[in-house]
Amino acid sequence: xxxxxxxxxxxxxxxxxxxxxxxxxxxxxxxxxxxxxxxxxxxxxxxxxxxxxxxxxxxxxxxxxxxxxxxxxxxxxxxxxxxxxxxxxxxxxxxxxxxxxxxxxxxxxxxxxxxxxxxxxxxxxxxxxxxxxxxxxxxxxxxxxxxxxxxxxxxxxxxxxxxxxxxxxxxxxxxxxxxxxxxxxxxxxxxxxxxxxxxxxxxxxxxx
Length: 208
Prior knowledge:
Elements: H1 2-20, E1 25-34, E2 39-46, E3 52-59, E4 63-68, E5 75-82, E6 87-91, E7 94-96, H2 103-115, E8 117-129, E9 138-149, E10 160-165, H3 167-176, H4 182-196
Parallel strand pairs: 4-9
Antiparallel strand pairs: 1-2, 2-3, 4-7, 5-6, 5-10, 8-9
């Protein structure tokens, strides 16, 4: 299918970017914390001036974000309580990658669990590092279309409400401060580029 090809192009482009990156001469990488979702390494390397530099780096398995687009052109957003910021935020559905699970399968599963919509089409529109200053989390963004409502399947600790929104309103929310979730704001840009056929990774998403 088309999105299988596009995902392979994602991975190929990412590998090329990594090969082009000049990495420091690392002297040592020590895992100092291992949790359920991520680990933390202390990385030490020698600078060109022969100084030893030390940084703490979060190692993350990666994640997906999904923009569900209804037949009328509206998008599906969620309200999700985030313990880290002690706020309930507007977001697009998203989730952490599972070991050995293809990204498109993670996206299909997460959009159904969090929004209650099953998608007949999952197509990639881009990817980005969420916080490369201290974390290697790679966020892959997908558009979900052909939506059928089947009901949410939330985990016991999740408290997520589902809302249909015009895309223009979501853009306004990103500007006026109602939408504070960075990955969702970045995803709007990728969706707009895909709709115009100017996206680097994808052109021709069936989204309005």
